[in-house]
Amino acid sequence: xxxEGAGIRLIAGRYRLEERIGRGGMGVVWRASDxxxxxxxxxxxxxxxxxxxxxxxxxxxxxxFREARAVCQLRxxxxxxxxxxxxxxxxxxxxxxxxxxxxxxxxxxRQGPVDAAEAARVGIALLSAxxxxxxxxxxxxxxxxxxxxxxxxxxxxxxxxxxxAQVAGATTLTETGSFVGSPEYTAPERMSGLRTGPESDLWxxxxxxxxxxxxxxxxxxxxxxxxxxxxxxxxxxPPAEAExxxxxxxxxxxxxxxxxxxxxxxxxMLRTYLETGRTPVAPGxxxxxxxxxxxGRIHRIGGNRAPKAPAPRNPAPYTPTQxxxxxxxxxxxGPAESSPVRSSPRGVLIAALLVAALAGAGVxxxxxxxxxxxxxxxAPGGTATSPATRTGTGGKGGTEGTxxxxxxxxxxxxxxxxxxxxRPTGTGSHTAPSxxxxxxxxxxxxxxxxxxxxxxxxxxxxxxxxxxxxxxLGIKVGVPQPGGPEGVMNRSAAGGATTNPGxxxxxxxxxxxxxxxxxxxxxxxxxxSTPEGPRHTFDLCWEEGGLLYDVWVSAPVGxxxxxxxxxxxxxxxxxxxxx
Length: 579
Hints:
By secondary structure, the chain is α+β, with helices and mostly antiparallel strands. The protein is built from twelve helices and 21 strands. The chain has a seven-stranded antiparallel sheet, sandwiched between helices. It has a six-stranded antiparallel sheet with strand order 1-2-3-4-6-5, covered by helices on one side. A four-stranded antiparallel sheet has the order 11-12-13-21.
């Protein structure tokens, strides 16, 4: 049953929907009347995903009920009260208290930023609410001004929309592997997929306080790539308006979750500010000497534990459709090797987050840092399907030429069987066909590319682009990853919807390349802009000689046959030459 224009409906024989008052990514919110108790309530209708198979839809619905019921157990004056969870036409509905008032985002939009005292009051309420939720094993995961309500008449602060909350011991309301939340308010460890815990909600609250004080998040940028880079790697610069609460803001926006300020400590520091007009320094910061404000009682999360090692030694998996930061020793060092982010133990931790982000559940920040790798600014930045803007220095390649072999004719049909099973790749000649040239790369390989494609090196990847970038051929060399090529591609496919807008029809098939284990990932997506239009991608990953090779081609959906030819020629002529 649809929601748009549905009119008055009775849900579960009790709740009469009267007026739609809100809509978000997870569902529609209605003003409703509880016919049994004679009170006004808010009813959130959780939208279903019609693209899911029936069994997957059922499992998702069951998770929704299980987790919503867990949220129902939360009792706190600053947490929205969930009265009931019901089902109508196999669709979950959350029945909540109706708050007469707008959101913090609405207030900021109408009246401008708040002063430090009001920000502290809001922060205290939310910290207390989060402490209760975290003690119950519930993570909110989408703390932002739009999810904070301010009740009219009382100014009561209410944290709402636990629609993507995570309950300890359960999968999330969204599909496993999908990214949820708002990038400007998402903690770097969540962005990189390293971990998700109470600390992540606290980072989001730090960003929220900055927004309340200045009118915008300190991580707001013009593109998604810029936002992710700001969260994971840029210098964090709280707004000038945050100066009175700076120790709290900086403590909450600590990138290392084990060093981040805890909820109880941050709440106490804000209370001290309201009482004295001064905010005590965070523990461990300069000036936090014995006898100072809050000394002896304020502790960071993990304060009684030894600091964790900053980065794992095992190589982190990467996502083939995203760019990487350079890994020393594999390819010649680029500009990123001299970046200040690697110049200290603190920088090592950030670099570890960037590397881990390559396998994260969300869009990888490291994959989008075009300017760190010498590429352009592109939005959202360089990926296998959308390389960043070129600097203008790319030519036809480092050392290239046309092989002297005999000319070949025409376009080949896509080498797949009628069942859709790909044939083993890499079984052809290394000679460049007519209309192609052999590109020899300093990373130790060569392949045939169309004669009019332009070389565009971007960090650890190299792209060959057709005029107008209609076709994009990309290559990357890396180190073997857990699960082999199939594991790499399956992890990439699991995050396909977050790395490629409108991702659909994706499949990963085990195959071989020149006798080596390989996996082919094929999918369709919407492109990064309306003018660009829908695109289709072929991506082959294989292991050879102790390295992991990845070759992909992206093209408009109307040019799939040509794209498949370019792809087949690239992988069939691919040859490891040695550095």
